[in-house]
């Protein structure tokens, strides 16, 4: 006597049911809502079938009726069918509502699982990345070119030396059109006074810019 191989996977059980009862079970397309209590009919029909246990049959049937494509097919007024494809009752509004709620919950759980799986995959890739590809926790410091020290006769703060033949000017010495040197920042730049107003003067520098400086920042040639 040939030993019967029991079906242990839902997909194999459902394929077997689709083969045995093609009028009620389908593996593709839009399924037909099943008769309420159809498990009892299945158990009776397959009572002598050693390939499927009642426990596995119940699990596979639950898997089938909770699938997204089956839940979408449960619409109010749609006929329910028995194992032979005969219409036995119809889908009621409360059945459709229950199917919609189950579908929404199933999608939510699937989305959470997908997000968790994606996060785990990203963490795994990060942990498996070669050491050279991982960013160093230390801050990279760019190599700066060596600073040039001040040249002969130059101070560290002043690139251009104060000319020895210049002296600080006083307000009474300054007048429009006079050639002077104005301190701009740390440099002395030659220019010409274009306007004088008490303790401030406007000097047009040799580079064309006009600056307003205090008379204390203006230098003139030493008086011999």
From TrEMBL:
Function noted in UniProt: RNA chaperone with significant RNA binding, RNA strand exchange and RNA duplexing activities.
Subcellular location field: Cytoplasm
GO BP field: post-transcriptional regulation of gene expression
Q: What is this protein called?
A: RNA chaperone ProQ
Write out the similarity annotation. Belongs to the ProQ family.
Which organism was this protein described from? Pseudidiomarina salinarum
Recorded GO MF terms = RNA strand annealing activity; RNA strand-exchange activity
UniProt entry keywords in alphabetical sequence: Chaperone, Cytoplasm, RNA-binding
Q: Where is the composition biased (Low complexity)?
A: 128-138
Biased segments, Basic and acidic residues type = 92-101, 113-127
- A single cellular component GO annotation: cytosol
- Which Pfam families does the UniProt entry name for this protein? ProQ (PF04352), ProQ_C (PF17516)
Please list where the region (Disordered) is annotated.
Answer: 92-179
* Residue intervals of the ProQ/FinO domain: 5-119
């Amino acid at each position: 006597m040939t030993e019967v191989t029991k079906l242990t996977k839902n997909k194999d059980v459902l394929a077997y049911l689709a083969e045995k009862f093609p009028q009620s079970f389908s593996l593709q397309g839009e399924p037909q809502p099943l008769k309420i209590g159809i498990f009892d009919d299945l158990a009776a029909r397959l009572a002598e079938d050693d390939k499927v246990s009642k426990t596995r049959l119940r699990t596979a049937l639950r898997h089938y009726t909770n699938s997204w494509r089956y839940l979408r097919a449960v619409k109010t007024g749609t006929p329910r069918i028995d194992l032979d494809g005969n219409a036995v009752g119809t889908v009621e509004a409360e059945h459709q509502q229950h199917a919609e709620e189950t579908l929404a919950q199933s999608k939510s759980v699937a989305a959470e699982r997908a997000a968790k799986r994606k996060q785990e995959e990203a963490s795994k890739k990060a942990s498996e990345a070669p050491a050279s590809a991982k960013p160093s926790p230390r801050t990279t410091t760019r190599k700066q070119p060596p600073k040039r020290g001040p040249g002969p006769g130059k101070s560290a703060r002043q690139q251009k030396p104060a000319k020895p033949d210049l002296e600080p000017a006083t307000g009474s010495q300054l007048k429009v059109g006079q050639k002077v040197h104005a301190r701009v920042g740390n440099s002395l730049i030659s220019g010409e006074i274009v306007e004088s107003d008490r303790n401030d003067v406007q000097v047009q520098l040799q580079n064309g810019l006009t600056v307003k400086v205090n008379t204390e920042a203006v230098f003139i040639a030493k008086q011999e």
